[in-house]
Amino acid sequence: MLYKRSSALFTEAKKYIPGGVNSPVRAFNAVGGDPIFVKQAKGAYLYDADGNKLIDYIASWGPMILGHAFQPVVNAVIRKTKLGTSFGMPTQIETEIAKLAVSMVPNVDKIRFVNSGTEACMSAVRLARGFTGKDKIIKFAGCYHGHSDSFLIQAGSGAVTFGSPNSPGVTQGTAKDTLLANYNDLESVKALIDANKNEISAIIIEPVAGNMGCIVPKKGFLEGLRKLCDDNKILLIFDEVMTGFRLAQGGAQELLSVRADIVTFGKVIGGGLPVGAFAARNEIMNHLAPIGPVYQAGTLSGNPLAMAAGLTMLQTLFEHEDIYKKLADKTAYLHIGLEKALEETDLTYTINRLGSMISVHFTDEVYDFKTSVKGNNDYFKKFFHGMLKEGIYLPPSAFESWFLNDALTYEDLDKTIEAAAKVVKTL
Ligand code: PMP
């Protein structure tokens, strides 16, 4: 496959946009080479600027769970656009999507919409601090909660891919209020709570981590966090930006049967338009302005086009709950196929999977940040580029989960497995 046009577009983009991209992981720094410029996408396929067709395993990093350009979402956005694109005044559709979202997600009474996952997590932490009157938070090494200052402490995703898990520009004053624990390690959390008695407002976690590759919580880990939070008057924030409406209608809370106090969303909830949200029970949400003292706002929050896309997406998922089983089955099929391909080599590898999230690490046993960074990046790079040559688009970093979408067929999965079998032999 040729990528001449993409490379030319990238050269031009670099003149005007830092690094040529508006979000770092889009650049191929971690895997080498120039990023691919996409022209359009439909269903499970991307069509790039050079006319190549690729099977897509990032789904816009999660949102496109029903495939690209899903017709009902496209129609809803077109219909809404004709009525005006932003008012800065309340609209009925905001209540419709709020009502539906709250009915799908366990343990929440109210939801507020914002424009990104970053905003959702940043606002959730402010709300937790305002509600508890305490300043510190605990996050987990390798988890990513957006690029707000408090979270760029041992952050995963692009931050680790680009060597800046602790970004310059975050003041020491801010950093000191973010305490760092290890994923799947309750003792590390207990130690922080003991050393900071009555100072911790919230523990924020990706209930299934997707920003150090996919990492699944060990049995008892989330339950243990829940108990520690209850015992110490700490709020448990589930960052369900990736997992919300993806692992189940009610996200990881439903799939793993663990209750969170505040839940954040992004990605699927906006149907591919810029939407984030955070939700909690009344007692907590009523602390928000204009009824409470914790300030949070947004000119474009609840934007009608974004709400139309999100509402249509959630309605479809609500009416077709079988999608989750279909997605999990396809992901399991892919897992088995990849495993078979890798077993025939002498490579060391781990495949982690839950629901429609999966990733391949070239190391053994990955259950936290330390074990994920052990992955052999040279193998990952070769694997990524080998797959790309075969027409398969994987996340261009080992520190990202793959996301399957409902439009993928078993034929697509077979093609992917065949490609992997060929590529892993060359590593
Ligand atoms: N939380 C998680 C778990 C994420 O994966 C991301 C983005 N990948 C964010 C928060 C931030 O979302 P956004 O990029 O929409 O700001």
UniProtKB/TrEMBL annotation:
Intracellular or extracellular location(s): Cytoplasm
Stored CDD domains: OAT_like
Cofactor list: pyridoxal 5'-phosphate
GO molecular function, one term: glutamate-1-semialdehyde 2,1-aminomutase activity
Catalytic activity, reaction form: (S)-4-amino-5-oxopentanoate = 5-aminolevulinate
Presence of the UniProt keyword Isomerase in the record: yes
Residues bearing PTM N6-(pyridoxal phosphate)lysine: 267
Record keywords: Cytoplasm, Isomerase, Porphyrin biosynthesis, Pyridoxal phosphate
Statement: the UniProt record of this protein carries the keyword Isomerase: yes
Pathway(s) annotated for this protein in UniProt: Porphyrin-containing compound metabolism; protoporphyrin-IX biosynthesis; 5-aminolevulinate from L-glutamyl-tRNA(Glu): step 2/2
Main location: cytoplasm
Transmembrane segments: none
Enzyme Commission numbers on file: 5.4.3.8
Subunit structure and binding partners: Homodimer.
Family annotation (PANTHER family): GLUTAMATE-1-SEMIALDEHYDE 2,1-AMINOMUTASE, GLUTAMATE-1-SEMIALDEHYDE 2,1-AMINOMUTASE 1, CHLOROPLASTIC-RELATED
Family: Belongs to the class-III pyridoxal-phosphate-dependent aminotransferase family. HemL subfamily.
Protein's name in the database: Glutamate-1-semialdehyde 2,1-aminomutase
Originating species: Joostella atrarenae
Higher taxonomy: Bacteria, Pseudomonadati, Bacteroidota, Flavobacteriia, Flavobacteriales
